Amino acid sequence: MIDHPESELLVQAFQSGAKGIFTCYESQFDALCECISCVHSGQVWANAQQMNCLIDAVAKVPTVRLVIPGLTPFLTLKNGARMSNLLDVLFG
Question: Whole-structure pTM over 0.85, yes or no?
Fold first, then answer.
């Protein structure tokens, strides 16, 4: 639950593992119960403005491609880091 739906705070909340955002502006108890139920069932709870903020934040993250000859043509930076860690463990 947050007081002000600032974009940076929303992004940080989801980066920290939040599955839903419930603001004090949505102070109706029924809405809070619905939020808890949705998140418990595996859904994400965010309104359209919050989702647009998250999409904008994702769009701003640069995509880096890593090429490992003979392994796979393209890996994202995150998957490339995972692959690098795996290769270190296997051949380190």
Answer: no
